[in-house]
Amino acid sequence: MRKLAKKVAVMAAGFLGVVPSLAWAAGGEKVAQLVVVADTRVLNNAFVKYIADLYNTNTLLFAVWAVVLTALYGTFLGFLMDFLMARTGLDLKSRKIVEH
Q1: How far apart (Å, rounded) are the C-alpha atoms in residues 70 and 50?
Q2: Residue 12 vs residues 3, 24, 98: alpha-carbon distances, Å
Q3: Does the model's pTM come out above 0.70?
C-alpha cells in the first residue's frame, strides 16, 4: 500500500510540474519583454534617487551597494542587540561555548 501511495505521489508531483508548461504551450499572442524600472520622478531624497538610478542603469553596482548596505545593517543590528542584552544583564561575551 505504501508503494502505491508513493507512486501516486510521485505521479501527482510530476503532473503538477508539467501543467504550467502545457498552459504556456497552449498558444496565444506573443508578448513583449517586461522591463522593470524604478520611478525616479517623485523621489526627493538624493541618496534614494541615486540608488534608484543605479537600479535602472547599472545593476552590478546596485548589487554591490545592496550587499554592502546589508552587511552594514546586520553589523549595526548585531552591536545594538549585544548592547541591549548587556544592559539587561545577559553578558554574552563571557559565555563559555561547549561543543560536543
Answers
A1: 17
A2: 14, 19, 46
A3: no
The alpha carbons of the chain give a radius of gyration, in whole angstroms, of: 26
In angstroms, how far is CA 20 from the centroid of its own chain?
Answer: 24
65 touches 51 (CB < 8 A): yes
Interatomic CA distance for residues 100 and 97, integer angstroms: 10
- State pLDDT tens for residues 11-54: 888 887 777 666 665 566 676 788 888 888 999 999 999 999 99
Please choose, from the candidates 26, 48, 29, the residue with its C-alpha nearest in 3D space to the C-alpha of residue 39. Answer: 48
- Which amino acid makes up residue 23? A
